Amino acid sequence: MALARGGTVRNLVWVYGTLKRGFSNHEATGLGAGTCSFVGSATTTDRYPLLILSEYNIPFLLDVPGRGQQIEGEIYDVDDAMLTILDHLEGHPDFYLRRNIAVTPSGSSDALTVQGWVNKSKFPLCLFRETGCWI
Fold first, then answer.
1. pLDDT tens-digit map of 83-113
2. d(Cα 49, Cα 19) in Å, to the nearest integer?
């Protein structure tokens, strides 16, 4: 979702994993600092599969709505410069794809459409259990 404030285009983005407060990529990107601001916590309205893989515990949110569980994350108000930084970090559009995602902010029952990143890999869904656990 893009907003215009003070002549500058602003974007509402939803992040999970290492981009959340307290994790490595949050500080490395400057998310939440400067012209970016934390809006609040939010959970995906749809369920999604989330894998945590590799020795670095990298989270992969798969673009398979309706499978898995609702994923907790954070909403930020960012400018176009930060959006470009986040796209680069996520490898958009080659590795992760930035697209609209419906989330429900904490303390609200109303869904909000924001931008988020989903993994484009085709992991075999046969590895996925309906409980949201990967084996």
1. 999 999 999 999 999 999 999 999 999 999 9
2. 18
> What's the residue count for the chain?
135
Q: Which of 27, 55, 74, 90 is flagged as catalytic?
A: 90
Class of residue 24 by CB neighbours under 10 A (exposed 0-12, middle 13-18, buried 19+): exposed
Is 74 one of the catalytic residues?
no
CA 16 to chain centre: 5
pTM confidence score: 0.84
Q: Which of 49, 53, 30, 39 is nearest to 115 (CA)?
A: 39
The DSSP call for residue 48 is B
For 124, the token pair is 């075999």
Strand stretches in the chain, DSSP E: 2-5, 8-15, 37-44, 50-53, 58-61, 72-79, 96-105, 112-119
What local confidence, expressed as pLDDT, does residue 102 receive?
A: 97
